[in-house]
Amino acid sequence: MFVITAILDALQISLFMLWEVLWPLALGFLLSAMVETVVSKRAVAGALGKPDLKGFLLACGFGAASSSCSYAAVALARALFRRGASFVNAIVFEFASTNLVFELGLVLLILLGWQFVAAEFAGGLLMAVILWIIFKLTLRQRMVDQARRQAERGVVGSAHEAHGEMDMSISDGPFLTRLFSPRAFTAISHTFYMDVYAIYVDLGLGFLIAGALAAWVPNSWWQAFFLTDHPSLNEFWSPLIAPVISMLSFVCSVGNVPLAVVLWNGGISFGGVITFIFADLIILPILNIYRKYYGGRMSLYLLGVSYAAMALAGFLIGGAFQLLGLVPTNHHVAVFETRPTWNYTTFLDIAFLLLMAVLAWRFITTGGFEMLRGHSHHPEAPGNAPSESEHMHHTG
């Protein structure tokens, strides 16, 4: 009975957190799908060709408007690199597309508060700047050439390969006509559910692991681990150890936000939370994808510079918010105990569930499942994935 009760407690916490963030997740995926419908990935690659300040700013902007799925972001970064984007801009785009996206901010706002949203976006930009500077100082053209030769081999990195590679954008006609056309409705539904498919495992694992840790690991253990009795050490230690925890959790993208909530509840520093969220792109499966995409040497290089950039950004943002008096003093997170009630969250969740049902109908009736099965079992070689525009022309 004790084991059953413990499992039920963990599942209850997981479901409570999921219910709190269901509508912002759906809204974020919807907005991302709309952007991908009207913005061609080839056009993005062309805009990111030069590793200068303009290219850096465009990489941040396009990344922030893109999908937050880490695996898709990594695949898309290689696709952009192969289509003409500079390596530096492709990697900056990749980090922006998982750390500066709308749905991540909404989930953070619901679960942790506005201070974390502000720190995440400020820290994300700071980390991108630090990455750009490190690349400028340490990245040699010889390494980039080796990475390009490996990228051109088209080695498949993950089951989500085709989702990151495919381009379902509609480029003909005025903007509003494209956005509200039947073809756009089809493209949005396909992109929406491809995003959901790409992330549902990580998202589910994130909530389940967070629920288990919240229910089973006492806060006293976390407090000892994060050295909360020594505040100064805690400020240094948390940003350093947070990426390691993220790497070992195997959870990426928005799925690591519930884990960040557990860590904050346990005493990790404010900067440590931000660093932990940044570290979704250095989890072990993604490091293995880097190895397949760019070679072993470049994968180790990306691990080193990414770790340095995210730890430094988290530490600096944590210190800055501490000086400004913006760091919350209460580590207790009520979301673990908040039962669903008839409030705005419930009404928004129901509304978005109905919208998701409409998108699911469009997805199913326009060959979405067939496309999904084709990508899952027979992924195209990167760079050669077909455009979906012809498919949408016949089904939309």
Quickly count the helices.
20
Helix percent reads over 70%
What sequence of helices (H) and strands (E) makes up the elements?
Answer: HHHHHHHHHHHHHHHHHHHH
Number of domains: 1
Radius of gyration from the CA trace?
21 Å
Number of strands: 0
Question: Unreliable segments (pLDDT under 50, ≥5 consecutive)?
Answer: 378-396
Could you describe the largest sheet, including whether it forms a barrel? none
Structural class, from secondary structure content? mainly alpha
State the end-to-end distance: 53 Å
Fraction of residues in β-strands:
under 5%
Mean pLDDT: 85
Shape: globular
Descriptive notes:
With 396 residues, this protein is mainly alpha-helical. The chain has one domain. The chain is built from 20 helices and no strands. Helix 13 runs antiparallel to helix 17 and helix 14 runs antiparallel to helix 15. The longest helix is centred in the N-terminal third of the chain and has 37 residues. The C terminus is likely disordered.
Keywords:
396 residues, 20 helices, mainly alpha, disordered C terminus
Can you describe this structure in just a few lines?
With 396 residues, this protein is an all-alpha fold. It has 20 helices and no strands.
Topology:
Elements lengths: L1 H37 L2 H7 L5 H12 L5 H13 L4 H13 L2 H10 L2 H25 L2 H11 L9 H5 L9 H5 L2 H35 L2 H7 L5 H19 L6 H11 L3 H9 L5 H11 L1 H28 L20 H22 L2 H10 L11 H7 L1
Helix pairs in contact: 1-6, 1-11, 1-18, 3-5, 4-5, 4-16, 5-7, 6-7, 7-15, 7-17, 11-14, 11-18, 11-20, 13-15, 13-17, 14-15, 15-17, 16-17
